[in-house]
Amino acid sequence: MLFWRVGRGSRQSLHQLVRSLADLLSPSSLRSPHICPSLPATWLRSFALTHPRLQSAPLPRHRESPAEPGSPSLKPARLTKCRHVVAPIPDPLSEPPTSANGSSLPQKDFINISGNRASRRIFSDSRKVSRLAQHMIFTRYPRGALLVLVTAHRLGCPLGKEVYESVARRLAEAREWRLISALALLQKRHLGRHTARLLDWRIRALIEVSQFAHLDRVLGWFEEGGLLPTRRTYHLLLYGHLRNRNIVKAMNVIRQMLEAGFNVDSRTHATVVSAYRTLGPDVGVQIRALDALKDADARTSTHILNALLQFSIDSRDSERLLSLARHFDFGKFDACQLPLGGFRPLPREGESAVLSRLIRSSCQSHTIGRIPPDIATYTILLHYIASHGDLPSALGLLEQMERSNLVPDDRFIAALVRLYFIVGRPNAAIGVVLATCADVHGSQAVFQDVRLPPEPQGTLPLPRVLPKPTIEILNALAVGMSRLHGIDGLQACLRLMQLCQVNPDNYTKALLESCLVNTEGLSSADVSHISKRFSPNEHSLSHLVQSLASRLHYQFRAVKRSGWNNTPSRKHSLRTRSLSLQAQTSTTSKSFDPTAGVIGILLQPTSHIQPIVQSLTDRGVLADRRMFALRIRHEAVTKDDMTGAKGVFQLMLDRGLHPNEYHYAAMMEGHAAAGEMEAAEAVMNSAERGGVRPNCVLHTILIVGYARQKNPAGAMRVLRHMVAAGVRPDVPAIDAVTSVFFASGAYQLARQTLLSLWPSVAPLPRDLDRASLKVLVFHLRNLHKGRVIPKKLSEHERKVLVGKLEELSSKVWSFRGSRSGTQQGGTMYTKGHGTLRRELSQSHLS
To answer: Biased composition, Low complexity: where in the chain (predicted)?
Structure first.
């Protein structure tokens, strides 16, 4: 850090003062210097040694990669990050400072820290006070920045509004959102009033900690201080309500902005399209945002295109992604190098076709002066390349970023770490992380126990400037290590967090819980008790979704059947639940948010979930798309109530939330469980027309449905369509196809099918070519644990697999003999001359 001059010996005095502040004032509950003193790393090893290993921990859903905020203005690429929710922010003056042992420290002792001559010179100059406070933010005790301002004010140093605003900007860079609201209270107490700029920072902080209920009071704060809201203020409010999936309040903000004399411009469209990802990829919103490019400056254009890039990745629309990438000036890196994946093109109808034409025409208009990408652009594309496991393209993108003189942030480094794990180079991933921890003593020895030494940094293509280790980087490492080495790998990452003095977040907590439950065999109650002591008491909607999903999983599993177990299932106890409980889950009930009524249908005790629900309710957090997916799946699969599932689906649409593959999968599961295969296939067609590319999961649901009907011809038809679409069959899909023949009694054909499809996921071991069907299925399912397989088929792989399916299909028809033909009506995939054509039917969701 570049220090300022304060006279002879002042630099040394500043270091001494910072050390004295950090050492004297121990971190409070806001930020602990250690990960958890009550949970040593050796404690985790005991679970690895004393509990049986069951299966690899599932990978928690990767969080999105927003860009670094440098001001209250919004950057669209940062919109998708699952923010960590915290408790209400205390008054910084109501809590006395504490000493290292946690006891209360007299206020006069804190003031006496500045009793020497050098310190008096610092506390007599507001510029030096501002720099000292900003430096404290990046120590292990960021709350000390506020106490520096308190001390300076009590010593009579005049602090102008620019001091508070500069500290707020640094707090945002450090993502210390809680302290920004406390800083706003300090400013009003010291100066007697707020400033519009700091109030804007406070709005941003409220959004980041999901305090959406306070957004309704924001304009009143401006009125109380005699201030006029700016365009930025309205954009922040618009962004916040869209982040909370509240379309009604977002429209009210636009109306208030127009009444205040601010028209809707390109920056407004950038705000909307950036925040709209929480609701889904609305084509109309994308069209209006893209149309606003002609009047936007370079920075706003970059933000708009970043959001559109992310939308295309979410819908796995590689063609649109490539068209949008051509708008950017990537220098020597050719956007055509981006992997396309081999999927067949999505259908373009209505607004989707208009958007595609607008993207092409817009690209032609930017041919001469292309738009400069920012670090968020490179991060988005690196995540996309990593999902395809394309290391050469990733290295080319990294070289271009270096030539652009952009400084990588922690999210870019986290994406690079994820890439190395996907391509099978965990040593390189560790090497990247340890390069960011170069100044951390003992970091090199952390991974000795797992016998995974890092690759030498001289052989790794690393950016010239690296960020300090953050929880984003270390979480990316923890995900990969937990998949490779289970609890031992996670233990090493926790040790590294301790050494780096980086506190875990809810994502780390979820990963730990997943390892303890799925890998170590602990019960959910034990894990819940342990995790309370492990992680800060942060209540987020993401954590609640994970908790509810794990509890509903047992109910789903109780009613789920496949071709391997094709006996009628017993009636589930939920179907005889009392009417009062069903009323609690009504879509019109006041308790519908934030859990979409899911909390009322749990069979297990929910005492430890209730505080999270209450916290989210108090902050005005609404149910998101993930919560709606849980509720729809419960109605469709567990309760076998498709009418109720469609009602929840329609309510989600009425709120402006766009369905994704999880919502369509839930509806398809319900129809397939009821034997309504025509309706299930119609739902998948509706998904494709809505811009959601049918993936392996959706096809597997259909295959399982046909397995329950003992219909191998229908299952093979779906499999053929999946391969023709370029989707690689995974282990569950092959398992499901094999179960169709097992359920039909064709055991030899089931074994032959399994052996034919096995090479699409892994080479077939030589010692298994004569094994029984039971042994083959056992080893096949073991392949699914922790193995990363490309999702798309190459052209050669697709041709080989199509040939095998042709041979298997001929045997299926001979096996059927006098069996009834394929179901007539509805959506059918029929065999043509080397291709598969689709017969469209009416949507069953309309």
So the answer is: 576-589
Q: Are 105 and 97 in contact (CB under 8 A)?
A: yes
Say if residue 560 is exposed, middle or buried (CB neighbours under 10 Å; 0-12, 13-18, 19+).
Answer: middle
Alpha carbons 43 and 375: distance in angstroms, whole number: 39
Query: Domain for residue 403, yes or no?
Result: no
For 129-177, the three-class secondary structure string (H helix, E strand, C coil) is: HHHHHHHHHCCCCCCHHHHHHHHHHHCCCCCCHHHHHHHHHHHHHCCCH
Q: Using the structure block, give the residue that is written with the tokens 């280790």.
A: 469
- Read off φ and ψ for residue 370, nearest 5 degrees: -75, 165
Looking at per-residue pLDDT, the higher value among 600 and 706 belongs to: 706
Question: Could you tell me where the DSSP H helices lie in 389-536?
Answer: 391-403, 410-422, 426-436, 471-500, 506-514, 524-534
Helices then strands, counting H and E runs in the chain, come out as: 37, 2
Q: Are residues 248 and 273 in the same domain?
A: no
Single-letter amino acid, residue 678: E
Cβ atoms within 10 Å of 80's Cβ, excluding its own: 18
- Provide the 3-class DSSP secondary structure of residue 655: coil
Provide the residue range defining the domain that includes 337.
264-374
User: 626: buried, middle or exposed (CB in 10 Å: 19+, 13-18, 0-12)?
Assistant: buried
Q: Vertex 6, ends 4 and 11: CA angle to 5°?
A: 65
Q: Which amino acid is at 113?
A: I
| Average pLDDT score, the chain | 77
Residue 400 lies in a domain: no
User: CATH number, domain at 771?
Assistant: 1.25.40.10
Domain count of the fold of the chain: 4
The answer to whether residue 588 scores a pLDDT higher than 90 is: no
CA atoms within 13 A on the CB side of 221: 22
Q: What does the DSSP 8-state code read for residue 660?
A: -
Contact assessment for residue 540 and residue 210, using Cβ atoms and an 8 Å cutoff: yes
Task: Please check whether residues 645 and 727 belong to one and the same domain.
Answer: yes
pLDDT single digits (tens) 178-237 = 999 999 999 999 999 999 999 999 999 999 999 999 999 999 999 999 999 999 999 999
- The closest alpha carbon to 661, from 54, 61, 36, belongs to 61
